[in-house]
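Design a sequence for this backbone.
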C-alpha cells in the first residue's frame, strides 16, 4: 500500500453501547477505539457475548453509540440523520450476516441486484452488475437458481456478491462462515480471502474461525466489550497460531479480569 492510499476510512474513538435487559444494564461495547485504513482488513474475535456483533453494528451505523465518536471517510456519523445514515450505508458499505438472508422467491441474480434496484438503478444496469458479481464469486452459472436450490455455502457466496454489488468501500461481515458445515465454510473462507485481498475496499470481519481471521491485516480481540489485545497478521502464520493466540488472550483476561470469581 502506498502512503497516499493510507487514509483513514473509519475512525472510532471511545465507543460505548449499553443495553438494558429487564433491570440489568449490559455494557456491550465499552470504550472501543479503532482506526481502519482504506484497503485494510481487520478481524474481530472474542468469546460469545464479548460485544463483537454490537461493535460491528456500531461501525456500520446500524446502531448509534451512547457516546464516542465515529467517522466514516471524515464524516461524523452522529451528525447524520437516520435517512442520511441509511443511504451512506447502502451506497458505501456492504454487510454480510451469518445467515445469508436471501429472498427465497427471487433468483440469485435478482437477490444480488436488489440493493442497486432499491438505490434507484435501472433493472438492466442492476442485473448486469449482479451477473458480474456472481461470476466473481464463482456462481455465474447459477444466476437463475433460487436460494432453495443452492447449498448453504453457495447461498452465502450469493450474499457476499450482494454485499459487493455497489462496490462498497467498506464490507462488514458478521460470522459469515458461522452456520456452514466444514466444506462450505472452507469455500466461503477462500472467497473471503479474495474479497480481503482486493485493496480497493476495507473489510471488518467478526469471526470465531481462526482460518477466516488469517485473511486480516490485524486481529483484534474483545473481552467484556473492551478491546483487550491486537496482533498483526505478520505475527501469525497459521490458523493454529491464531487459535493459540486467542486462547492466551482469553486466559490472561480471565486471570486478570477483576470480576472473575476466585481472584
Ligand atoms: N438488543 C439487545 N438488548 C439487550 N442486550 C443485548 C442486545 N444485543 C446484545 N446484547 C447483549 O450485549 C452483549 C454483547 O452481545 P453481542 O451480540 O455483541 O456479543 P457477541 O460477541 O457478538 O456474541 P456471539 O459471539 O455470541 O454472537 C451480550 O451480553 C448480549 O446479551
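Sequence:
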Amino acid at each position: 500500500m502506498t502512503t497516499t492510499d493510507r487514509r483513514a476510512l473509519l475512525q472510532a474513538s471511545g465507543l460505548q453501547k449499553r443495553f438494558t435487559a429487564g433491570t440489568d444494564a449490559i455494557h456491550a461495547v465499552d470504550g472501543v477505539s479503532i482506526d481502519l485504513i482504506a484497503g485494510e482488513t481487520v478481524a474481530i474475535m472474542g468469546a460469545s457475548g464479548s460485544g463483537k456483533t454490537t461493535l460491528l453494528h456500531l461501525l456500520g451505523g446500524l446502531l448509534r453509540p451512547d457516546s464516542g465518536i465515529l467517522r466514516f471517510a471524515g464524516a461524523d456519523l452522529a451528525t447524520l440523520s437516520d435517512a442520511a445514515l441509511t443511504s451512506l450505508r447502502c451506497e458505501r458499505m456492504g454487510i454480510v450476516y451469518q445467515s445469508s438472508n436471501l429472498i427465497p422467491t427471487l433468483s440469485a441474480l435478482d437477490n444480488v441486484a436488489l440493493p442497486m434496484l432499491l438505490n434507484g438503478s435501472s433493472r438492466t444496469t442492476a442485473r448486469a452488475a449482479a451477473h458480474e458479481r456472481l461470476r466473481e464469486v464463482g456462481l455465474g452459472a447459477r444466476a437463475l437458481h433460487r436460494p432453495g436450490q443452492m447449498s448453504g455455502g453457495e447461498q452465502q457466496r450469493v450474499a457476499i456478491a450482494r454485499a459487493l454489488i455497489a462496490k462498497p468501500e467498506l464490507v462488514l461481515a458478521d460470522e459469515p462462515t458461522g452456520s456452514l458445515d466444514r466444506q462450505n465454510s472452507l469455500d466461503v473462507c477462500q472467497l473471503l480471502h479474495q474479497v480481503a485481498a482486493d485493496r480497493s475496499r476495507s473489510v471488518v470481519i467478526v469471526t470465531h474461525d481462526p482460518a477466516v481471521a488469517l485473511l486480516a491485516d490485524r486481529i483484534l480481540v474483545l473481552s467484556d466489550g473492551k478491546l483487550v489485545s491486537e496482533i498483526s497478521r505478520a505475527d501469525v502464520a497459521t490458523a493454529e497460531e491464531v487459535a493459540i493466540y486467542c486462547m492466551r488472550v482469553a486466559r490472561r483476561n480471565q486471570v486478570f479480569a477483576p470480576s472473575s470469581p476466585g481472584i
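The first helix runs from residue 52 to 59.
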